[in-house]
């Protein structure tokens, strides 16, 4: 499949409010105690708030009740990207300073963009000796080849023929900073910060809406006539980068790599012809589908990069329902679901923040390891 051009959002109609929405409009107050620090005991035991876009009505369920909310013939599209153990530790050669690295995006097998700390003490040309999970020195080194305007470093890894496979011995799960661990790597995170259908390695953050699915739940869905299929978007810095611009229209997303298989394209095309619903499992899945339909009314197998930034107002072309988690204040993901709540309008922000307020009162758990939301 030939790579396509990087694709961005193109709202179908201009609305004056587009130019007045500010990042601060997407703020809300969240008690720190509601930021989930551990996954639910059972994946599908998470709470699930449902939001009816046509009425604004909400209901409270558990995720294992999802089959009752879907119809035979609905298509669930899931992101099968596998989270890599992207958090690395090492020591500066010749200086002794400790170094921490978070892989962001692959350039080629041994060439990566990464966040590094302490950045000022690791200038271009620095060599870092990597440690394994037990803190022991290895024979693998990282050389700082360059830095970009955001302070991210380009690292060249040497000392292994297959860096990706070596990561399993070197790296830790790249948990977000709001999940705090007392010491080192948690064994639980290795399996639970990963969907059960993860396949293609490349993400540095989990597509968290998929974390709630279990094999039993997927089998139940299929027995009831719900069709499942996958695509891939490797979650990178673009998904979780903070919005620093005052006006949301001044924010620019980092491009992330995606692949849409021909089998998935065929399933979705047939569902659209039959007027059956397309349900995106996660904002990453939604972004891929909406990226591709910017230029194509019929889906084909495709791969490329997308920097699509979906925010109010946005007219959705393909997705009819969205399964997602609860997102950080002022984040691009909160802006996306606000757009989805009222397509082509800007009042979805109010609907979503009202639903969030209900979730807070009900003590829902927020963010990556938190509870779920189903918008339809």
Labels describing this entry:
single chain; 376 residues; alpha/beta; QueA-like; Thrombin, subunit H; 9-stranded mixed beta sheet; 6-stranded antiparallel beta barrel; 17 strands
What do you see in this structure?
It is a single chain. With 376 residues, the chain is an alpha/beta fold. It folds into two domains: 252 residues, QueA-like, CATH 3.40.1780; 85 residues, Beta Barrel (Thrombin, subunit H). 19% of the residues lie in helices and 26% in strands. It is built from eight helices and 17 strands. The strands form three sheets. It has a nine-stranded mixed β-sheet. It has a six-stranded antiparallel barrel with strand order 5-6-7-10-9-8. A two-stranded parallel ribbon has the order 4-11. It is globular. The two termini are 32 Å apart. About 2% of the residues have low confidence.
Q: Summed up, what is this model?
A:
19% of the residues lie in helices and 26% in strands.
Give me the CATH architecture of the largest domain, please.
3-Layer(aba) Sandwich
Structural class: alpha/beta
| Top CATH class of the largest domain | Alpha Beta
Number of domains: 2
Helical content class = 10-25%
Q: What is the name of the CATH topology of the largest domain?
A: QueA-like
Q: How far do the termini sit from each other?
A: 32 Å
Summarize model confidence as the mean pLDDT: 92
Task: Record the SSE blueprint.
Blueprint: E1 47-51, E2 58-62, E3 75-79, E4 81-83, E5 87-92, E6 98-108, E7 111-117, E8 127-131, E9 137-147, E10 153-158, H1 163-170, H2 187-192, E11 200-203, H3 215-223, E12 227-233, H4 237-240, E13 256-260, H5 262-273, E14 278-281, H6 283-292, E15 302-306, E16 321-325, H7 332-341, H8 348-361, E17 372-375
Parallel strand pairs: 1-17, 3-12, 3-14, 4-11, 14-16
Antiparallel strand pairs: 1-2, 5-6, 5-8, 6-7, 7-10, 8-9, 9-10, 12-13, 13-15, 16-17
Helix pairs in contact: 7-8
